Automatic annotation (TrEMBL):
Keyword Metal-binding: no
Source domain of life: Bacteria
Gfo/Idh/MocA-like oxidoreductase N-terminal domain location: 5-121
Lineage: Bacteria, Pseudomonadati, Bacteroidota, Cytophagia, Cytophagales
Molecular functions (GO terms): nucleotide binding; oxidoreductase activity
Protein name (record): Gfo/Idh/MocA family oxidoreductase
Keywords: Oxidoreductase
Family according to the record: Belongs to the Gfo/Idh/MocA family.
Alphabetized Pfam families for the sequence: GFO_IDH_MocA, GFO_IDH_MocA_C3
Record keyword Coiled coil present: no
Gene3D superfamilies: Dihydrodipicolinate Reductase, domain 2, NAD(P)-binding Rossmann-like Domain
Limits of the GFO/IDH/MocA-like oxidoreductase domain: 132-246
């Protein structure tokens, strides 16, 4: 079996977690890292024993034998950095939110498909074993017909106008950073909504501090979703069905199991699913499986799904009046 040489473009906190988890992936090796600062790239490379470190993103294209690039820059930069790699023929795993808006996502997908280069959104939640378990239970009708889904994701962070989370130029706000998770999980279980309602509370910089969504689906289900960067929430997801309810255990975006409470039964059924590391290794292993099969997109997280998610994010931003510079 061949070894896959990974590169990381953008060396923030999430890149460090991904690098740590890559050690858990069979036949994976961190081969190159790229930062706007050569010193930062060299320090990162020294920490993880990486043979190649470059001080610009363009210089990454000159590194030989790269099999896949993980893009971990801010949301506002995903479009440019994905295109940089895709046009060079390098397979891309791009952090969520996939792009700043659906127009950018469409162009990323077009370039990938025309060049027959692999592209996938790095929505790590999709690849946790507990998610697969929950989908099996719901699709088998274990809790009956799903009527409502609730999901929230929130944490409290100090207000820093120039920081990534509050800066409009970096596509800041709760929605694209963490609100995308409740929206993702609702799309995964319920599909595309027929109606979306959204309200938000703006931060002084204009990005959303809180964002609350109410959605309706063609099949008759509804969803209540919430994100905030002003308060710690439970980070829960519960699906309510005609026969009972299903909850993703732990933080729903990185679940450690599934719990099912059927109507009329005293005790819930628990399906534990312990994880290793941070959980990023699941998506990396999946990318390698796709590349080994010669695929240009994932069957579990197809590009059409990511585009639909971006279209929903655009619709929400239109309702709450959130525009980013240049839009």
């Amino acid at each position: 079996m061949r070894t896959y040489n990974w590169a990381i473009l953008g060396l923030g906190n999430i890149a460090r977690k991904f690098a740590q988890d890559l050690a858990l992936v069979p036949q994976a090796r961190l081969h190159a890292v790229a930062s706007r600062s050569l010193a930062k790239a060299q320090d990162f490379a020294a920490e993880f024993a990486v043979p190649h470190a470059v001080g610009s993103y363009a210089d990454l294209l000159a590194v030989p034998d790269i099999d896949a690039v993980y893009i971990a820059t801010p949301h506002s930069e995903h479009y440019a950095h994905a295109l940089l790699c895709l046009r060079a023929g390098l397979p891309v795993l791009c952090e969520k939110a996939f792009a700043q808006n659906a127009t950018q996502a469409e162009e990323m997908i077009r370039v990938a498909q025309e060049g027959r280069v692999f592209l996938m959104e790095a929505f790590w939640t999709r690849f946790f074993p507990a998610i697969a378990q929950a989908l099996r239970l719901v699709q088998a009708g274990h809790i009956g017909e799903v009527k409502h889904l609730v999901a929230d994701f929130g944490f409290a962070t100090p207000y820093q106008p120039e920081g990534r989370l509050f800066n409009p130029a970096l596509a800041g706000g709760s929605l694209l950073d963490i609100g995308v998770y409740p929206l993702f999980i609702s799309q995964l279980f319920l599909g595309m909504p027929s109606a979306v309602g959204a309200v938000s509370t703006p931060a002084p910089t204009g990005v959303d501090l809180n964002c609350a969504l109410a959605l309706a689906y063609p099949g008759g289900a509804t969803a209540s979703l919430f994100s905030t960067i002003a308060a710690q929430t439970d980070n829960r997801c519960v699906l309510y069905g005609t026969k009972g309810q299903l909850q993703l255990l732990g933080r729903f975006h990185a679940p450690t199991g599934v719990q099912v409470q059927l109507a009329g039964e005293e005790s819930p059924q628990v399906f534990p699913s312990p994880t290793q590391g941070h959980g990023y290794h699941y998506e990396a292993a999946h990318v390698q499986e796709c590349l080994a099969q010669g695929l240009t997109e994932s069957p579990l997280l197809p590009l059409a799904f990511s585009l639909q998610l971006m279209q929903q994010l655009d619709a929400v931003r239109q309702q709450i009046g959130l525009r980013y510079p240049g839009e």
